[in-house]
Design goal:
Layout lengths: L4 H4 L12 E7 L3 E2 L2 E2 L13 E6 L5 H10 L4 E8 H6 L3 E4 L8 E5 L5 H18 L3 E2 L6
Antiparallel strand pairs: 1-4, 1-5, 2-3, 4-7, 5-8, 6-7
Length: 142
């Protein structure tokens, strides 16, 4: 992917603006009847308690979805929250671009204990529900 000057100017170390949307691909079990399971926002120990998200300035919801399913996962769609929603939960977000995904970023839950991570994940999932899905591959009533 050839980077344009606009893309280059925000990579890799420019702070993520609080109003920027951060996109999260949803595993097919994380969305049902209009609700987002809080596990979608609960990073695992395997990933050092850091949640992978994509910067909306650098990726469309459909591109985020396509990358996720290309990796072999099943997905019901993509949701998003603002970076400020993470910051309000005392979760820092940082860019983490890779060769195949310049939009990749991390939301770091690691400073928080497991019960706090669960509570924060629940609140973020509720916020994402209020915003609605950014991309869906399922019927509205699923």
């Amino acid at each position: 992917m050839k980077l344009t000057k606009a893309v280059y100017n925000i990579l890799p170390n420019e702070p993520i603006d609080g109003e920027e949307r951060l996109l999260k691909a949803l595993h097919h079990t994380d969305y049902h009847n209009g609700k987002i399971n809080s596990l979608a926002f609960f990073p695992s120990e395997e990933h050092n308690f850091k949640l992978s998200v994509d910067r909306a300035k650098l990726s469309t919801p459909k591109e985020t979805y396509d990358r996720y399913v290309k990796g072999g996962e099943q997905s019901s769609g993509v949701c998003g929250v603002h970076a400020s929603d993470f910051v309000n939960e005392e979760i820092q977000c940082s860019t983490d671009p890779s060769d195949d995904n310049v939009a990749h970023s991390l939301a770091d839950f690691s400073p928080h204990g497991v019960s706090q991570r669960r509570k924060k994940a629940r609140r973020l999932a509720a916020i994402a529900v209020n915003y609605g899905l950014d991309y869906s591959n399922i019927a509205a009533d699923d």
